[in-house]
Write a structure and sequence with these properties.
With 194 residues, the protein is of the alpha/beta class. The protein contains 5 helices and 10 strands; from the N terminus they run ββββαβαββαβαββα. A hairpin with a 4-residue loop joins β6 and β7. The radius of gyration is 16 Å and the shape is globular.
């Protein structure tokens, strides 16, 4: 895992929004394919169990990723964009699973939600409209290539490994790529003063 010691290791330009898919990106399962609620939360292991005891587990580094964004990138909003057919299950899971480093649930760390079965194009148009953030100022992590369609809106798409989800290395690589590929004329610079 990449350890980011201070903000000076961040690229100059940062996205105004980082969006995450859920299944195989934040957690290790398609939540739609579980047995569903009622869900039980295991506080010791930060996992939820569906009605038959099957575990829904966060990827190993996802809490570090969320914590890093919150603590080191305060001007960057966090969003969820999922085409899940069971949005209520997703919201329940997001209200249970925690980011212990910041003392909040995942739901409490997210600024914008678009969770319903449709094209990611629809999700990102809605995110842009709700937030006032241009799609070109967004980074999106997803496990499916088909969702790279959001590039047509200007979103910086990054496909993740379905066995690892979003890791710190993936996050930092995406931030560096965003910095290199963004239009210098339209991006505010991050102050790196001591």
């Amino acid at each position: 895992m990449t350890i980011v010691k201070d903000i000076s290791t961040l690229p100059t330009r940062l996205p105004k929004m980082i969006a995450f898919d859920l299944d195989y990106t934040v957690w290790e399962e398609w939540i739609d394919c579980t047995s569903g609620p009622p869900f039980a939360y295991d506080h010791e292991r930060n996992v939820i169990l569906d009605r038959h005891g099957y575990e829904i587990v966060l990827f190993k580094e996802i809490t570090a990723v969320f914590s890093f964004i919150i603590n080191s990138m305060p001007g960057t909003k966090i969003a969820i964009a999922s085409r899940s057919t069971t949005p209520d299950w997703c919201y329940t899971a997001l209200r249970m699973l925690r980011i212990p480093q910041v003392g909040k649930t995942i739901h409490g760390c997210v600024d914008y939600f678009e969770i319903y079965p449709t094209s990611k194009i629809t999700h990102f148009k809605a995110l842009s409209k709700k937030s006032g953030i241009d799609c070109g100022e967004m980074v999106f992590f997803d496990d499916e290539w088909r969702n790279s369609e959001v590039r047509t809106l200007g979103v910086h798409f990054h496909r993740v490994d379905t066995k690892k989800g979003v890791t710190m290395d993936v996050l930092m690589g995406a931030l560096r790529e965003y910095d290199q590929n963004s239009d210098y004329g339209s991006w505010p610079h991050l102050s790196k003063s001591p």
